[in-house]
Amino acid sequence: MEQRGEDPTKHAESHGDFEEALKGLIDEPGAKHKHLSIHSPAPEVITNAWLNNLIPGIHKLEATYHVGNWVATARGPNPPKVFESMPLYVRLGMQALYHGRRQAQLLASERVSKLLREQSIKQGKAFDSTDNVLEHIQAFVKTYQIDCAELEKPNIADYKTFNEFFYRKLRPNARPVDSPSDPSIISSAADCRLTVYPTVEKAKEFWIKGANFTLTSLLQDESLATSFHEQGASLAIFRLAPADYHRYHSPVTCLVGPTKNIEGDYYTVNPVAVNENLDVFTENKRDVTLLSVPQAADATPLSVAFVAIGAMLVGSIQGTVQQGQEVGRGDELGYFAYGGSTVVAVFPAGKVQWDEDLIINSSVPIETAVRVGEQIGKFV
């Protein structure tokens, strides 16, 4: 344990090099098939040498136990809750890499930022490869129990690369929107784990712990942040886990506005980092798209900022709509290539009432599993 007042750089290399640990979590040397280790079924997970040295025998535990993030798996009062599945060695490795002042300082260094960027680009290229595609998809489907029956192309042999499967399309009507004729309803933008907050301040209190998180830093636009009334803006945070369908959709009926591409880092968007003192959302690569929501006759349209945020191992954020295009609630806006990812939707202060069960869960805080098109709130 680090002692209070201790120089956080004093033991920067203790328990091995953290950079090598990160490389090991992504691409363990000696793996039979590169890039399979973190998504292999539990009994087949490759042993991570760095963590095994830190915790002898961990490879025996990882084959049996999966742990993860606390998630409500259904809507309504007193929902069932589970820990989202994650191989134990990956979970502990992420804790070791992201938890604490020493690690935060290391991750803030240009050296590690460069490593994360290089590894993410490397993985993107690897998953665009045609090597071992079917085997990789089979392992992924087995690990995460993907329901291929709902896919536009249900035969996994039809996918030429793993990335093509990762941003797979669903068959028509697989995600119907709730109450499609009611313009007041706001829908989930993704299959995801969701938290919602009536204000930025509430989000910082319960969920986002980055010291420098502000709406201005998220949007990289002080004027736009001010138009949302900065601290009072409402937020919906849609976290996509690797198993999720990775196309994202409009939560509202709107006119698509301009998109700003913001270059940045590739930290994980897992709560293990977001709930630490790391500025994940405001440092990561992201696209900010303005959505203009029509109001009653002669009223000024309402603006929503739709922020697609890349993450560790995400190769790209790809929009599939154009500025000036009209889209309905539930229509596709784009997709993420390989990796866990997040969308943050920003609404002007006082304009949204989130569903009560989501507010209760988010204040615990617990994420709630929701799907594209599902109602999550209403305009007021």
UniProtKB/TrEMBL annotation:
NCBIfam families: PS_decarb. PANTHER family: PHOSPHATIDYLSERINE DECARBOXYLASE, PHOSPHATIDYLSERINE DECARBOXYLASE PROENZYME 2. It comes from the Eukaryota. GO terms for molecular function: phosphatidylserine decarboxylase activity. The keyword Secreted does not apply. Its cofactor is pyruvate. InterPro entries: PS_Dcarbxylase (IPR003817), PSD-B (IPR033177). Keywords: Decarboxylase, Lipid biosynthesis, Lipid metabolism, Lyase, Phospholipid biosynthesis, Phospholipid metabolism, Pyruvate. One of its GO terms (biological process) is phosphatidylethanolamine biosynthetic process. Its EC number is 4.1.1.65. Pathway: Phospholipid metabolism; phosphatidylethanolamine biosynthesis; Lipid metabolism. The keyword Heme does not apply. This is phosphatidylserine decarboxylase.
